[in-house]
């Protein structure tokens, strides 16, 4: 079973470890009188110890072989004993029994998922309790602030009587001053009239002075505005002069620091738009998008030759990023090549912008499909007009399974999510007593709610709505 073979089962010839002099039949056939004494000395000193060592090693090896066979038999018996009953049952049962066991294992998996969800709900309840504790602490702090305000109010009430006394004193002083005014009114009226006339003349002169001051302020404001305008023009001219001097200095004495700054700005723009120019010649332009796709644009007099444009996936991107949907990746690459040739004569900027919009739409759609594949098994199949994504939804309560398909034509997925309402869907009941139309209506209702602005996880939500129909 394990493929182990021992030395006694190997048919390959073994190498001899006996000295060649031992295997010489001609010397053995001669008479003892013809054998010299030196041969006896060599045999007793070299050959006999070798023969004894060989016999001893052979016996040890035979003992080890028998011991290893016993260990092997014991190991096989232990493996038979330790093998899980579930695996033995799975191996010995027929195909229907194996399918039932697989179904039971899937049910156990769903149970574990539900148990994990329950633990998450418990954690959320604990978190809500912590929020209540924080709210109670905040309420206690508010009560402490109210108590502090009560102390401040009591202090204010203690200050009010003193203020009232001060007010009464002021009222008394006002009465005294009114009495003094009355006494003044009883004085010489002619003298008071002369003083009033003098005050009126001085008031008129003051009004004249005030008018002159206002006119002077108005002139000053106009002059200040002109001065501000002149200074603004001066600053503008100075900035233009500085810019011209900087350009002249750059043209005459360009520094490496300025070059590095411009390179940093170029790299920032490339990182923002995810496009990077790798080759720029009058006859050929090459761009790399998101370190994934390479676009080669042959040109003739700086105009793209649309028929010769090549788009390919970078080999390093295949190794770094695992493709979750290989069928969709191949379709996207093929559609991009068709897209640039279909639109006809375009300039370089229009081509780059069109491909960038297309790959951005495909990235958003792959994100939607990735969210669905996390919850439900998802299959991508190519169609003549585009592709379809089929999610397998299990209804455990009814022991049923439904296949929900989202059908996307080329215009739909190449401009996702602008034409999201044009996406079609279909439902097939694999087995079980469930209503297909009810599931289809639930999926369609959720997709109608999706808009080009609000469409996050709409495909996953549609599958969840279908699952809740028979929860």
Question: What keywords describe this structure?
Answer:
67% helix, 4-stranded antiparallel β-sheet, 12 helices
Structure in words:
This protein is α+β, with helices and mostly antiparallel strands. The chain contains twelve helices and nine strands. Helix 9 (348-375) packs parallel to helix 12 (458-469) and helix 11 runs antiparallel to helix 12. It is elongated.
* Overall average pLDDT: 83
Ends: how far apart? 49 Å
Structural class: alpha+beta
Secondary structure tally: strands: 9
Q: Work out the helix count.
A: 12
- Share of residues in strands: 5-15%
Rg (C-alpha, Å): 50 Å
Summed up:
This protein has helices spanning 25-29, 37-82, 85-92, 95-185, 189-252, 256-273, 315-320, 326-342, 348-375, 410-414, 436-449, 458-469; strands at residues 275-280, 284-289, 293-300, 303-304, 310-313, 378-383, 386-395, 400-409, 424-431.
Protein topology:
Blueprint: H1 25-29, H2 37-82, H3 85-92, H4 95-185, H5 189-252, H6 256-273, E1 275-280, E2 284-289, E3 293-300, E4 303-304, E5 310-313, H7 315-320, H8 326-342, H9 348-375, E6 378-383, E7 386-395, E8 400-409, H10 410-414, E9 424-431, H11 436-449, H12 458-469
Antiparallel strand pairs: 1-2, 2-3, 3-4, 3-5, 6-7, 7-8, 8-9
